[in-house]
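R.M. (postdoc): so does anyone remember the format we settled on? I'll just put the structure tokens first.
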């Protein structure tokens, strides 16, 4: 494989991994505070629809992002109201958000745009443009390794670079700040946090707020960068992949990041393997190659969910005893 092919594969891996990274970070923050979030898929889908709708109607990138964030935070607040304030079943609530989003986006899309649930194609003015493309072109004649890195790392949009920056930022937030210490304590021993005079509910709502923002960025990326318009069910299980990556990464941002890159690499490789003959095997069916990331999700969940230690109070509603 030459340097151009390696660089192109690296670039594709980063592009495909970006929504997974953002969503996995969202799940990490929520679950480290003690709130299970199986609604990652639904939050990402509904915010993608919100971003696509706002971009198509108003023609403004900033407004599309703002509306998507508002929708994502509202969904997380609804999640918190049901599960934190009223101690509802967190698994059921997460699945309810996902199922509602899957149906609501189709119904509203058909009613508003009359295109089978899709939004109209978005103009370039409301899409995320690539950065550092000129720098990548200047390095085309560089040594092979530098050339491959230039092709792989330069020319992405701001959301890709934001995802890469957010991984160490969230890791630092959880490990090095007072807020992060209290957040992790709320997921491990909420009674101790309460005894120290800190509100467990407030910490979990704060974690869910950040969760909503990150899910919104992941959903917006699908419409404003990866696809030219919103398509029904376009998340295609990415929320569950992010959940698997978070578990495989042991609820740590850096570990989840590497797992997301693995999923992204498999997805990017699958695109390139379609129709390509393999030694001793021949042409592999396209459907088998497309299923690789999902098979890996099942393998990771089946093989590592028992070995990874979840936060002790994860999924356990907390109520003050006095």
């Amino acid at each position: 494989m030459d340097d151009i092919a390696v660089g192109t594969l690296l670039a594709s891996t980063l592009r495909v991994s970006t929504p997974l990274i953002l969503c996995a970070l969202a799940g990490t923050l929520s679950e480290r505070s003690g709130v299970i979030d199986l609604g990652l898929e639904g939050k990402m889908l509904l915010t993608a629809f919100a971003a696509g709708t706002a971009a198509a109607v108003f023609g403004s990138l900033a407004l599309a992002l703002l509306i998507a964030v508002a929708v994502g935070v509202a969904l997380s607040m609804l999640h918190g109201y049901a599960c934190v304030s009223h101690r509802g079943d967190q698994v059921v609530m997460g699945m309810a958000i996902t199922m509602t989003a899957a149906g609501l986006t189709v119904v509203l899309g058909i009613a508003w745009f009359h295109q089978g649930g899709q939004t109209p194609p978005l103009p370039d003015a409301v899409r995320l443009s690539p950065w550092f493309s000129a720098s990548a072109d200047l390095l085309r004649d560089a040594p092979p390794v530098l050339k491959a890195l230039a092709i792989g790392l330069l020319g992405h949009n701001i959301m890709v670079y934001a995802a890469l920056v957010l991984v160490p930022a969230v890791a630092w937030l959880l490990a090095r700040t007072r807020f992060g210490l209290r957040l992790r304590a709320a997921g491990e021993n909420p009674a101790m946090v309460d005894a120290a005079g800190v509100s467990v509910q407030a910490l979990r709502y704060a974690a869910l707020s950040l969760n909503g923002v990150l899910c919104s960025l992941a959903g917006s990326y699908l419409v404003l960068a990866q696809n030219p318009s919103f398509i029904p069910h376009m998340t295609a299980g990415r929320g569950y992949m992010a959940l698997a990556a978070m578990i495989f990464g042991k609820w740590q941002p850096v570990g989840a990041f590497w797992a997301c890159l693995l999923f992204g690499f498999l997805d990017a490789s699958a695109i390139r393997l379609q129709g390509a003959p393999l030694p001793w095997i021949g042409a592999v069916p396209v459907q088998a190659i497309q299923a690789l990331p999902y098979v890996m999700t099942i393998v990771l969940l089946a093989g590592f969910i028992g070995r990874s230690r979840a936060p002790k109070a994860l999924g356990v509603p907390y109520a003050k005893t006095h």
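R.M.: ...and that's the designed sequence above, right after the tokens. Also worth knowing: Residues 3-32 form the longest helix (30 residues). The two ends are 66 Å apart (CA to CA).
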